[in-house]
Here is the input.
Amino acid sequence: MKIAQFSSVGRPDQVIECVDAADLGDPKDNEVLIDILAFPINPADVLILEGKYGMQYKLPSRLGAESVGKVNKIGKNVQGFAIGDMVLPLDRENWVQQKMVLASNLILLPKNVDPLQLSMMKVNPATAYLMIKKYVQLNKNDWIIQDAANSGVGHSVISIAKHLGLKTINIVRRQGLEDKLKKIGADVVVIDNNNLSQTVKQLSDNAKIKLAIDAVGGDQVLRIGDCLEDEATILNYGLLSGKNIEISSYHTVFKRILLTGFWLMPWLQNMKQQEIIDMYSYLSSLIEKGIIHVPVEKTYSLEKIKDAVSHAATYGRSGKIIVTPNGTKF
Ligand SMILES: NC(=O)c1ccc[n+]([C@@H]2O[C@H](COP(=O)([O-])OP(=O)(O)OC[C@H]3O[C@@H](n4cnc5c(N)ncnc54)[C@H](OP(=O)(O)O)[C@@H]3O)[C@@H](O)[C@H]2O)c1
Here is the structure.
């Protein structure tokens, strides 16, 4: 079988490679062998290849935070899964044609849902869901502001917030995204500018904003701070600008704004199994109903992993880049 691996860190498309690996054989008693149908290239995967992610890797290493798979073989003690079931592996190293997973690390998914959409469910929709639900008490018609609103997470924030009766102000960095984001439920779409708080006030009718969700960092956060009401929370979950977050003491002292960070991995490590199952069952039902739908720009074979990684790093994509390691006939 084929896998993607990296033996050094550096320019992502130069260090990633598709290589042959030994077949996995039969599952042990509590294991399931799955064929990987699809996985997305996420910014965090690119950071890993660059050596900039918050984890150490023993090289050469496999990678890939998420995927969707189909059950191929089942160990003799495994219950609740059948051959052909669609499954979400909760562990990493997903950029492979096949993997062996402990049954306790698999979530059963509904059949007849687009595998490309399901392949993007573990990370971004869960991130959006937990950031909306777990930090600030929000009531119907409350407002959230987010940047990088055209990202996969951004799409999920808009769709989940809409579904929960919340309103969103969505900051993007370029023209041409307003119609697209309003179609999926964005209330306000604004391009970042030096008078961001004035623009936001006008477009949202002076909304009182309690939660800000930031993946950009840098001075974008200063401008977001100006848009928030007193005692609001800023949740930083990404570093797309590559710059440290800027915040003023006017925000932290006089407005008493709280700045904290979100990382999905410890959430998944600390949540009870049933909570994880419930969350993904809610998110897959939103995907099934078309409420969460993240555009896909292009799919690649695993052999073309270098092209896929390089494409994922391009400016102004219309959607995610997905790899289908076992072909596109699901
Ligand atoms: N902390 C966590 O647990 C967690 C979990 C999931 C994701 N993340 C982070 O969330 C972020 C988004 O991930 P994703 O998979 O949703 O991304 P994605 O779908 O690949 O999209 C990336 C988006 O970022 C925008 N962008 C890139 N550089 C930017 C910059 N300097 N300023 C403003 N916008 C910029 C792009 O804008 P254009 O559309 O204009 O090109 C694009 O919309 C990443 O930083 C990722 O690492 C963190």
Observations:
- Residues 42-44, 123-124, 127, 148, 150-153, 173-174, 215-216, 237-238, 240-241, 262-264, 315-317, 320 surround NAP (CB under 6 Å).
